[in-house]
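Provenance

Sequences were taken from public entries as deposited. Structures were produced by running a predictor on each sequence independently, with no templates supplied. The record for ATP-binding protein from Nostoc favosum CHAB5714 is shown for reference.
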Amino acid sequence: MAQDFATLKKIYNVFDPFRPLPAGDAAYVNCQEVRGDGDILVEVGNEILLSDRKTCQLYAGHRGAGKSTELLRLQKNLNDQGCFVVYFAADEEDIEPEDAQYTDILLACTRRLLEALKDANREPLVSWLKSRWDDLKDLLPDVSLEGLEVEKEIPLFAKITAKLRTEPSLRHKIRDRVNPHTQTLILALNQFIEDAKKRLPSQYSQLVVIADNLDRIVPIVQEDGRSNHEHIFLDRSEQLKALNCHLIYTVPISLVYSNRATDLRDIYGSDAQVLPMIMVQTPKNESYQRGINKVQELLQKRVSQIDPKLSISDMFQQPEALQQLCLMSGGHVRNLLLLMKSAIKYTDNLPISTRALQRSISETRIVYRNTVYADEWQALAKVHHSKQIVNDEQHRNLLFNRCILEYRYRDDKEQIQCWYDIHPLIKGIKEFQDAFNDLNPSETQLDETGTD
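Predicted structure for ATP-binding protein:
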């Protein structure tokens, strides 16, 4: 029994959905062929490697789709080809996704560049900090600049970003005092960057900053009727682009499908690259075995890290249970791993029982049911029927909440086709079934499991 528990514990933890895979990890699966043939190394990486000017690119996709894992692959690839890459997950220590503004991002970039480029001349940023200290010192009463050396003054940027993230009462005060001086901060930061680029080790010829997890910034409609996403990525785009190095920002997928999509392209000079779901079903609601096989490979590679002899297909009481798990995930990697972890939690001994899997599915379905507002069921029914979305605030929110998922494939003419569907777990919710059956009374209705 102890041995069974030890094995289950290892399996449970190998499916950690919140740990991006580092570049070269044995558990990584290349899903390019079932994600519309997109490749971040080509679409984003080559833009940097081929360009004679600095670039600023946007990278989008549903939260939990695997963007961080892909960005870590990109970081290594660029590093191998002569780029010094500063990567950071902005929500870990720098910004609060529930309440973030452009100033927070600028300060986060400043802090991370200072930490990564230790040999560069920091004097311009130290001078900026000293010039602003009378405005900020009462917000940092435990810190004094008097008599401190440069090396000890710089961590104050980390203190500022920490307070932005963790202390709501100070967040707006810090922004109010920094906002009027962001242009001078950018000027000082660019002076620092220029000196840093000259001091990079000989194998590096370019500097790249990747700010990850900005896509987690929660959409908020502000007093002027526009979203905070627009204020950050459109209104402050010139400042976001102003740093004198290559830049990659993750952005909320809902912004990419807003009525400002063409503005994004015009402003940033290229389309935002999107990481779609793994296609586990077709637009005709049929299982797509190539995609399902990829999902199973993803699970198998993680299990093999524990014991190469373990087979993912043998871990379920019934063979069709694994197929169901893959389909119910919708090709969403984090959902897949969460469903797997939950099923293991209700398992005492392998194989995983059908009852444990169904409980995992049912509990996650409840979460999705609680996410959907009463007036959104009909919109979801229309998306499931048409496989398309309407460009409005309601559908953008449903994209952000992962109730609607995006898929891509190449057709017979090698054209990329983009389509949408609801998360498969929603099909089993009564409110959705009622809305769908009311909308399509003459068609085959959904049964209690949500199957067409």
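The longest strand covers residues 83-89.
Residues 354-371 form the longest helix (18 residues).
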